[in-house]
Design brief:
- With about 170 residues, this protein is mainly β.
- About 10% of the residues lie in helices and about 25% in strands.
- The protein has one domain.
- Strand 7 and strand 8 form a beta hairpin.
Amino acid sequence: MAGAILGVAACGGRTAGPAAPPPQAAAITALREATRPYHDVAAAVRSGYAAEVPACIVHEHHGAMGYHHINRSYITRDLAVERPQFLLYERLPGGDYRLNGVEFFIPYRLWPRDSTRPMFLGQQLKREDTFQYWYLHVWAWRENPEGMFADFNPVVRCPAAASKVYRPNPPAGF
C-alpha cells in the first residue's frame, strides 16, 4: 500500500488496535500492516531496528512510552507509514515484548526548527528541543486513553530498573 508522505499539506496487543479517527483510518491501517511483522522483536531486528534498548521511557505522571527501537536507515525528511523510525515496545513480566506503537521523527537538520511545523497523518509534529527533532507518536497497537497521538500512554509500564524519566522540552502542547 502506498503510504502517506510527509508534507505541509499532508493528508489528513496483536489485535486490530485502537480505532483511528476517520481521516487517518486508511493510513493507520497501512501502518498496522507495515508493522504487523514486528510484534516479533526478532523480525524488527532483522529489518534493521536496534536489538538492545536499555532504557524504557516513562513520565512521572502520564505513564510511559516504552522501549524505543530505532531504525537509523529510516531517518529522513519524508515520513511514510511503512517506515516508522522507532518501534515502541513494552517488556512484559515474562520477558516477552509487546509492540504498542511507533514514533516518527525528523531531525532539525533536515527540517529546521524555525520553519513551518511539519505535518503527518493530519497532525502537527511536536518539537523536542533537547534532542533537536520533530516527532509524533502513534499508538497503533495499544489503546491509549489519552488519544492515538499522545506522547505517553498511561497503561504502558516499564520495569523499575530500566525506567528513564523523560520530560519533553518544550513541555507538551508547544
